[in-house]
Amino acid sequence: MQPSPEQSPHHAYPDHWEADVVLRDGGTARIRPITTDDAERLVSFYEQVSDESKYYRFFAPYPRLSAKDVHRFTHHDYVDRVGLAVTVGGEFIATVRYDRIDATGRPASAPADEAEVAFLVQDAHQGRGVASTLLEHIAAVARERGIRRFAAEVLPANTKMIKVFRDAGYTQQRSFEDGSVHLTLDLEPTAESLAVQRAREQRAEAKSVQRLLAPGSVAVIGVGRTPGGVGRTVLRNLLGAGFTGRVHAVNSALDAGQDTIDGVPAHRSLGEIGEPVDLAVVAVPADRVPEAVADCGEHGVQGLVVLSAGYAEWGAEGRERQRELVRQARSYGMRIIGPNAFGVINNSEAVRLNASLAPDRPASGRIGLFTQSGAIGIALLSGLYRRGAGLSTFISAGNRADISGNDFLQYWYEDPDTDVALLYLESLGNPRKFTRLARRTAAVKPVVVVKGARHSGSTPPGHAVPVSRIPDSTVSALMRQAGVIRVDTVTEMVDAGLLLADQPLPAGGRVAILGNSESLGLLTYDVCLAEGLRPRPPIDLTTSATPQDFRDALSAALADGACDAVIVTAIPWVGENGEAESGDGEVLATALHAAAAAGPAKPVAVVHVEIGGLAEALSAATSTVAQPRPATQPFTAAQGTTAAPAAPPSAPQPTAPQPANADAAPGVPPEDAPRRGRIPAYPAAERAVRALAEAVRYAQWRRQAATPGKVPDFLDDTIDPPGAAARIDALLGEDPDPRGRPLGHDEARELLACYGIAVRPTLPAPGPEEAVAAAARLGYPVALKTTAPHLRHRADLGGVRLDLDSEAALRRAYGDLTELLGKPAELRPVVQAMAPRGVDTVVRATIDPAAGAVLSFGLAGAPSELLGDTAHRLVPATDRDAAELIRSIRAAPVLFGWRGAAPVDTAALEELLLRVSRLVDDHPEVVSIALEPVVVAPQGLSVLGASVRLSPPPARNDLGPRRLSNY
User: Fold this and answer.
1) Do the strands 172-177 and 217-221 form a parallel or antiparallel pair, or are they unpaired?
2) Predicted pLDDT at 575
3) CA dist., res. 434 & res. 410, Å (int)
4) How many CB atoms are located within 10 Å of the residue 253 CB?
């Protein structure tokens, strides 16, 4: 809705202020600027506000708005006077307005940096978090327009509005003047305001999911009159699952007099249903969906599951149809699963919802499963069913035009029925937000992810997401940093999910192996070593072992303080008649269950070969399963056991570092881990060991997450952020090129120096005389290098000459270089002072439009590049991140004294990484930095080359006010 020229002759309508938001009760609303066309809406809105709310707004009885009021409240310049409205169904439910004021409180224009703000919320919508959401958005608008403080006058009796200001988390001052409370809010975001914002976001988005998963009534729109078809299938599945709420069938073409379908009340439209409907399952052709959505919106439906196809997966026309579907649903306050969805399942006994195309509701369990693909969802449901696993909830979101995996992470975070979250994702709609939510959720329960479409080079059909330039290996590293267990296949996801859902977390990587097959035990031993675990020599019970022998051996292994987990291997054993017995798996399962139940809380997994009934018997739930635990209980070690403190990450290490999954100190799993219930069984050793290795790595991450790293403040005295900002502004100029600006050598050196990063000076040497003069300035010994792009990283061609300790040596090297590789104008030679000998490394930081700022580290040279041996962390990096970056590359032993070499100064390297991280975090205009090479010596380091690129900062949708993604 564009304003008229009368309203804003100088300032265009700010459409980027428009936003869809989720409110406290899970419903949606739209926030947008008020325009001159909103006069009637404003008057209608005001008429529905109670006299008390009007009194609180104007401090006097104010029954109606005058024509002057309406004009003033609908005409804004979008700079000094701004009004925003919250709409549902196109009608106003709340407004907020600010007017810039001067020091005396009178209207002012820029450069005054204070504004008076006032809210009005329709009484029927108070308590939904409307005002707090509006405050976030009007504060963001004000900061954009140069306003730094809000002033508000509130009557003491208006406790709701006072609470909105008090709970926002902004720095504020309060005073009592002339019978009202005067509040001043500093609009600069604080750690508290960001925490408040994200906590509200979590509650609202979790509630919006809960409304979809736990409806009191469901209507299926598009139920055929005859058996078959999508709508009829969903109706049958709802009834078959025993849904505890009310069910309605809707078909606009019902026969006269037909009032039931499959025993369910049938209606021609949703409007004929004489009671509220919470969830609607839409199963009509795409061209009839808008009519169905409008019917749902008018009837007050809370959410939609759209099974209909024909949207973005069909091309440009379908994408526009999908955008319009989301806009239409949100305008009525509804959220959508789909379109092109497979459906949702909630196994809670209080709900028993199967609003999906899955014919059978899976067993109840502790696993939450989200998938974007219906076909993968079917495969996962089938695999979990065969393995005896149970689900708390299942969601197949199709094109996930609205509800996404991020929303379900918000829900599962506090869901007491879910202990493990499994997600199959083909795209990440908001990678920054996903990483933040995954890290928080992983701190209390495992998150296992399979990322499909990793190497296709394009977004899957139907998914409108930001394009990421970072390779998949980097995405994987960032997920690991957030505690996400990323696996390659859905089979591995099920394998890991089964272990994590029913077994306690391991305290370390020491594994006992026992069984009745020496060969299978040795194979398991080898796989453990390959996965970075520390297996003990297998215990061979021989092929004559009985179930009692297994029980005794497992009991002994669990009781051993030097064991953190047990893998049992089993093949059909030999009976008294000398024949192999394979059909008595239940007896063995009973023995293993008994030993596990009586022993310490350590994970147990079974590798079996053709033992009939064993897997089924092991997967049967037992009485040893713990009661559901609070989802957000912090990670704690069991009483009497403490993990050994980690060495300070900055301390040089004399030996090669341990791998990322190195063992923790002996101990027992945390109290909040699931107690043993089902024992997972695997048909191959490598599958069991990989699942256990993932559990070991995750448990180690959890221990570290309990005491997170920090961004050290020792840098504050050695950096100059204002000086860097001034240089950046000068370098970008008043009209910066959106494509960015690479800095010259001296420009980069000066900017980096603001953050204490010293780059060794390099002087041009277009001829031998200039080279000699440069060496005289720098001091011998020097290096002579070519900087031509076609010779970069080609040391094999002889473009670098080192340790030139005299003028004669320099002249000879210059002559040899030009004779071998070409004219000086083509080679662009430079002279640089020699650095102390050490290990050549590379430090980089880049801004990815989807993932954000990423810090990377690796050794310099072709081998590291060819093998992809680079580590990555999100910015801002903590001291722990810097230490892990150095130690997590495969070539890390080179830094720590490999084969008798002197260890290098890793403490200096960690400090450099932190300085680069701080620079990029403080100044988003720095979109890339490459320091190459960084020579790390036994004492200190030298940055020999640096390239920096500046660009106008990209939008940060993860730091602004809460909003839903737009499609």
Assistant:
1) unpaired
2) 55
3) 10
4) 8
* Cis status, amide bond into 781, omega within 30 of 0: yes
Residue 195 near residue 167 (C-beta atoms within 8 A): no
Helices vs. strands in the chain: H and E counts, helices first: 27, 41
Q: How far is CA 920 from CA 18, 93, 836, 914, 954, in A?
A: 29, 41, 28, 10, 13
pLDDT digits (tens, 9 = 90+) for 343-373: 999 999 999 999 999 887 788 999 999 998 8
Per-residue pLDDT at 462:
52
Q: Which residues of 210-246 are buried (b: 16+ CB within 10 A; e: fewer)?
A: bbbbbbebbbbbbbbeeeeebbbbbbbbbeebebebb
Among residues 235, 242, 227, which one has the least CA distance to residue 280? 235
Q: Give all domains of the chain, ordered by start, each with its CATH number.
A: 15-188 (3.40.630.30), 207-500 (3.40.50.261), 504-638+654-706 (3.40.50.261), 709-760+836-967 (3.30.470.20), 761-834 (3.30.1490.20)
pLDDT score for 690: 97
Q: Is the pTM of this model over 0.90?
A: no
Round to whole Å and give the CA distance between 331 and 28.
Answer: 8
Question: What is the phi/psi pair of residue 886, to 5°?
Answer: -70, -40
How large is the average pLDDT for residues 62-72?
A: 94
Phi-psi region of 37 (alpha: psi -120 to 50; beta: other; left: phi over 0): alpha
pLDDT digits (tens, 9 = 90+) for 511-528: 999 999 999 999 999 999
Distance of CA 572 to the CA centre of its chain: 45
162: CB partners within 8 A, 6+ apart: 154, 156, 181, 183
Phi, psi of 936, deg, nearest 5: -100, 115
Per-residue confidence band for 957, with pLDDT thresholds at 50, 70 and 90: low
End-to-end CA, the chain: 18
Q: Rounded to the nearest 5°, which phi and psi values hold at 155?
A: -70, 140
CA 531 to each of CA 394, 472, 520: distance values in angstroms, whole numbers, following the listed order: 31, 21, 17
- The arithmetic mean of pLDDT across residues 278-283, rounded, is 97
Q: How many residues does the chain have?
A: 967
Is-contact 882 910, C-beta < 8 A?
Answer: yes
- Pick 940 or 655 by higher pLDDT: 940
**Phi and psi at residue 394, to the nearest 5°:** -140, 135
The span from the CA of 772 to the CA of 763, in Å, is 11
Count Cβ atoms within 10 A of the Cβ of residue 133 and give its class: 0-12 exposed, 13-18 middle, 19 or more buried: buried
pLDDT greater than 70 at residue 892: yes
Q: Hey, how many other C-beta atoms are within 10 angstroms of the C-beta on 453?
A: 16
Q: pLDDT-derived band of residue 952, with 50, 70 and 90 as boundaries?
A: confident
On the CB side of 251, CA atoms within 13 Å amount to 23
Q: Which of 253-267, 502-516, 802-816 has the highest mean pLDDT?
A: 502-516
Instruction: Walk across the sheet containing 217-221 and list its strands.
Output: 260-261, 264-267, 246-250, 217-221, 279-282, 303-306, 335-337
Residue 209 has pLDDT above 90, yes or no: yes
Separation of alpha carbons 141 and 83, rounded Å: 10
Task: Using a pLDDT cut of 90, give the percent of the chain over it.
Answer: 59
Judge whether 170 and 187 are in contact, CB under 8 Å: yes
DSSP E strand boundaries for 452-505: 485-487
